[in-house]
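Give me structure tokens for this 196-residue protein.
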Amino acid sequence: MIPRCTLISLTLLILHDCKPPWTGWYSVLHIGQQQTISSSVLSSLHSCTICGHQLPVVTHCRNLGVIIANTCQPRLHIKTIVAKARQCANAILCCFQSRDPCVVLHAFKVYVIPILEYNTTVWSPSQKKDIEAIEKVRRQFTKRLSGLRDYSYSEQLWKLNIQSLELRRIHYDLTVTFQIVFGLSVLKCQEFFPIK
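Here you go.
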């Protein structure tokens, strides 16, 4: 049996032939390690090389716009997108003089929702504080709209005729599950849902 690090090195050599200069393109993410890794522990982990150059060992990396941590938890990604979405939502409120819900909510849907929902089936949060952090972006935004300040968040959603972000993520997850089960995706059903 070939050691895992050797397999990774061989795969990287194949990738090297397909990509532009490899510098900065590749790194090694050791899954399952603690969030805080000392430099001595990082140096003792198996290192991989490509064309004789050692690849850096990292605790997280960005792939297709999603930050993947070695703990397999989405917390770092959520923290990043919440900060970006909050900044964008505040910019919308600063740019528009009107607080008319129809106008401002449309801008929120166009500019902020895609930040909060991009690739949610990959990083969908399971911990309550992560779910609340994401929902808080919309909660703070809707509270600042005219005529909605005195209502609860669920009443604001009902008056605006919109769904919570958590419910929208559940819909996305169900849609992807449906596509996998009925063969409408390149993903194989047997890999996710073993049939007995």
